[in-house]
Amino acid sequence: MRYMLLLKYDEAAQAETPPDPAMFEEMAAFNTAMVDAGVLLAGEGLLPSAKGAVVAFDGEEPTVTDGPFAEAKELVGGFWILKVDSLQDAVSWARRAPFRAGERIEVRKVAEAEDFEGIAPPEVMEAEEELRARQAQQQG
């Protein structure tokens, strides 16, 4: 099973106190431990919201608002995708993350095709399987 760990934090509060340089070493050790355990599929940090935008679907046409996202109390600051056997395993890894007070990790199961069997039409499921095969071939 795949799980996504989403780092969430208050961007305004964190801007007041930049990370300690030791945090980078701790994060490298955390990521290395996940790679060594064979569970890390992907992981990246995200730049501040000032470097991003929000696309909102509130009407007929999507609207785009450039960052920063001052109205948001909590933002996603990074993510990992893990391949583990259970939610408990994903939570165990999340608990080891070297974060400061006020930061949180949300642990979510990544939807797999079988999660939609009997719900999505068979032709949609087949098309999705073909897309995933094409994607794997492009990356391979």
From TrEMBL:
The record ties this protein, via InterPro entries, to: Dimeric_a/b-barrel, YCII
Q: Under what name is this protein listed?
A: YCII-related domain-containing protein
Question: To which protein family does this belong?
Answer: Belongs to the YciI family.
Among Pfam families, the record links this protein to: YCII (PF03795)
According to the entry, every stretch annotated as the YCII-related domain falls at: 1-112
